[in-house]
């Protein structure tokens, strides 16, 4: 039994929630303050950057060319069809790092993908083996 005013399990206290497109009061206030000033502020930031202000320069450059979070990695992994193929893949990753073709962090990210793929291969193999055992049990 729930006490009065308590939420029932699995039911939100505000089922409709915040409407789509609703904006925070602080955001609305900041936009109101900056309304009509964006062009002047941008021009001033550019002038400061041109005069050697490194903070303004960084701000301008970050807007022109944001830091890339990720990039395609040209690397060919050997095929992984069973868990036994994993050492070939990890050896290829280590060799690419040693040769300077991949950074250690890129190899680590690719290693996570390899690990996820191996788990998927193992799960599929396990499902086939279970189905075969069930079929043998049903035949007896």
User: SS-based structural class?
Assistant: mainly alpha
Q: If you compute it from the alpha carbons, what radius of gyration comes out, rounded to the nearest whole angstrom?
A: 28 Å
- What is the first-to-last residue Cα distance? 51 Å
Ranges where pLDDT stays below 50 over 5 or more residues in a row are none
What's the pLDDT, averaged over the residues?
A: 85
Plain-language structure description:
This protein is mainly α and 140 residues long. Among the domains are: 25-64, no CATH class; 83-139. The chain contains five helices and no strands. The chain has helices at 25-34, 38-50, 54-64, 86-99, 104-139. It is flat, with a radius of gyration of 28 Å. The two termini are 51 Å apart. The mean pLDDT is 85.
Topology, element by element:
Elements: H1 25-34, H2 38-50, H3 54-64, H4 86-99, H5 104-139
Helix pairs in contact: 2-3, 4-5
Short description:
The protein is an all-alpha fold and 140 residues long. Among the domains are: 25-64, no CATH class; 83-139.
List keywords for this structure.
140 residues; mainly alpha
């Amino acid at each position: 039994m729930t006490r009065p005013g308590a939420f029932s399990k699995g039911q939100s206290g505000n089922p409709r929630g915040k409407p789509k497109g609703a904006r925070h009061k602080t955001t609305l206030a900041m936009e109101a303050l900056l309304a009509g000033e964006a062009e002047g502020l941008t021009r001033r930031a550019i002038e400061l950057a041109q005069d050697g202000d490194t903070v303004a320069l960084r701000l301008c450059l970050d807007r022109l060319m944001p830091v890339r979070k990720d990039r395609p990695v040209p690397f060919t992994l050997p095929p992984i069809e069973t868990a036994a193929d994993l050492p070939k893949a990890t050896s290829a990753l280590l060799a690419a790092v040693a040769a300077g073709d991949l950074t250690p962090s890129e190899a680590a990210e690719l290693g996570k993908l390899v690990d996820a793929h191996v788990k998927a291969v193992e799960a599929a193999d396990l499902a086939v083996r279970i189905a075969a055992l069930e079929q043998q049990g049903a035949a007896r």
